[in-house]
Amino acid sequence: MASPFRRTAVAACRTQASHPPAFTISQNVTIITSLSSIRQSSSSSRRTTLTPKSPIRISSRTFSTSPPRSSNSKYTYGIAASFTAKDHRYNPDTNVFAFNPYNRIIARRKDKRTRPDSGQDAFFVSQIQHTPDIAVGIADGVGGWVDSGVDPADFSHGFCDYMAHAAYTHSPSESEHPFNARSLMQKGYEEICRDPSVKAGGSTACVGIAKGDGTLEVANLGDSGFVQLRLNAIHEYSEPQTHAFNTPYQLAVVPEKVLKQAAAFGGQQLCDFPKDANVSQHKLRHGDVLVFASDGVWDNLSHQDILKVVSRIMLGARAWEHSNEGVSVGKSLGNFILADDGKSGAEEIPSLQSFLAVGITGEAKAASVNTRRDGPFAREVQKYYPHENWRGGKVDDICVVVAVVCEEGK
C-alpha cells in the first residue's frame, strides 16, 4: 500500500513517550478501597478478589443500518493484529501480525521467546479446519497473580494457543457438541487447566467466530471486547462484565493453597467460567470492520475514538468512499485486504487490516501515556471516586485484532 496511508496509520505513535513510566504491582489479597493504589500499580493488576462495589459499565449508542441480504452470500475476512507491552515502546513496523489462512497452526508454544511482544495480553487467529470460517480471540492476563510468584502471561498466551489449535484441528464428525464461540472458549480453558506448566493464573476472554455465510458469534467474558463498525458508524459492540470496579469477570486456575488463604482472611477468590460469558449473534455486511481488543484499548479510547481512526484510514484508502447517498464501500475493497505475498519490503505494512490494527494500537498507546487526555477509565474514576483526582490515560498492555469483511463478487 502507498506510503501516505502508512503514515496515516502510524501518526498517533509519534506522540507517545519514548519510555512509558514503570509501575509496581500492589497486593491483591485484601480488598482495595483507594484508587490511589491502582494508580501506583500496573494497570494490568486487576484484582482477583471480590469487592462490594457495584458493577460499572461503559456503553454508547448503537447504530443499526443492516439491509436484507442473500442467505447464500460468501464472505472472506482480511485479518491482522497489532500489540505492545505496557513497559515497551511501540514499534508499528515489528509489532504487527498479518493472518494467512494457509499457515499451519501447531500446538502450545512452550518457548516464551516465540510469543508476540504483547506482555500479559494474548491473541489468536485461526481458520476452522478446511472451512471459510475464522476464529479470533483476545485474552488479558490478570496481573494480580504476580504477587503469588506467577507470570500472568503464561495463562493468557497458553489459553490462546489452545483455542487456536482447537479451532484449526476441529472436525465436525468427531465432535459430540456444537462448535461455537463459547465451546471454543471452554475447550481452551479445559486445556490450560490441564497444563502442568501453568500452576495458577487467570485472564479475561473475548472469542469470535466469523463464518463464510456472513454471520458472527461473539462470547465475551470480562472487560476485553469488540466493536463492529459499518460505513462511518458504530453498529454493534460488547458490554464489559465486571464484579466491581476494576474487577472483571475472569477465567482462572486457582491452587488449593490460595483458596484456603482467601477463606482464612474472609475473602473470595474469583473464578468465573465460559458458561458465564455473554454470547451475541451478529450479521455482517460487505465493508464492515470488526475490532477485538483488550482493555488496554477500551480504557483509553472510546468507541467514537476508534471509529475516527478507522474512518480516517478507510476513507483515505478509498475502502470507504463519500457519495451522494453518504458513505459507501469502495469498489476495490477486496484488493486492499489481500494477504501479504512475502515480497513486500520490510518497512511497508502490506494490507488494509494491518494499517487499521496499527492505527488503533498506536492511538491507544499514545492515549495511555498522555497525562492531559482523560480516557474512559479516567472518566469512570472521576465519576465514582472524585477525590482520587485521576487524570490522563491508563498504562497497560495493548492488543488489537482487526477484521475487514469482504463479500465475494463485490
Automatic annotation (TrEMBL):
Keyword Nucleotidyltransferase set for record: no
Region named Disordered: 37-71
Cofactors required: Mg(2+); Mn(2+)
Reaction it catalyzes: O-phospho-L-threonyl-[protein] + H2O = L-threonyl-[protein] + phosphate; O-phospho-L-seryl-[protein] + H2O = L-seryl-[protein] + phosphate
SMART domains referenced in this protein's UniProt entry, alphabetically: PP2C_SIG, PP2Cc
UniProt-listed Enzyme Commission number(s): 3.1.3.16
Domain PPM-type phosphatase, first and last residues per copy: 105-405
GO MF term set: metal ion binding; protein serine/threonine phosphatase activity
Gene3D superfamilies associated with the record: PPM-type phosphatase domain (3.60.40.10)
Residues forming coiled coils: none
Keywords (A to Z) from UniProt: Hydrolase, Magnesium, Manganese, Metal-binding, Protein phosphatase
Pfam family, one: PP2C_2
Enzyme category, top tier: hydrolase
Keyword Hydrolase found: yes
Membership in a protein family: Belongs to the PP2C family.
Name of the protein: Protein phosphatase
Organism: Phialocephala subalpina
